[in-house]
Amino acid sequence: MTVLVGLGNPDKRFENTRHNIGFTIVERLAELREATWRKLLKGVLLCSELQQDVQDAPDVQDAKYAKYARDSEKNSEKNSEKNAKKEIGKKEAGKKEIAKKEAGRSAEKIYLLKSMSYMNCSGTPIAQFLRKKGKQEILVIHDDLDLELGRVKIKRGGSHGGHNGLRSIDDAIGRDYWRLRVGIGRPAQSIAVTDHVLGRFRPDEKEIIDALVERLAAKMDMLYAGGGLQKDNVAKFLSKAA
Predict the structure, then answer these.
(1) How many Å apart are CA 216 and CA 118, to the nearest integer?
(2) Residues carrying an active site annotation
């Protein structure tokens, strides 16, 4: 199972701010997958669950075996009834095997989390969730001052770089987790860093960020294709979404 954590602050006054880009991305991902949010841990954590997207599996199976079925029916006119039943039996066995494999993959869950305890205390409810669910592959989505606006990087481990949300998570669970860093750029010298990160994007910036959020949310499943976050998928994901 995989956990995607979007960092942000819960109050409405922080909606759509630079510091809440993590919230924005997981919210859009949940919206695209028509997933709902529920409260956990007495409301200090919001959780949404996604299933590995194999909804089209039955159609794929039917399409794959449609020609085979037609051929079997034609051959049954020429062959004995015994041979015809044997061929149809093979088809059904093949469909059942694929259905079994697809059912196994569909059981893989992806949890989306948003901490309602404010950015500086994000680690505590996330750690509580992980203790309850057991060891998970974690991806934390957050804003990054040191990346230019709209640039995206993914890494595993490392320092918090002064980001208080990451600092809180590091203190609670350690540093061995994936981070998806979304660039918000540094402010002009006349603007304080706090005002910058807690401020909303300018119209020209918002156009860039909105398009980025849409791409990231739409392509996020590429990161956990095959079950869990895969290192080999990172380059493919960044080439399509970033």
Answers:
(1) 24
(2) 19
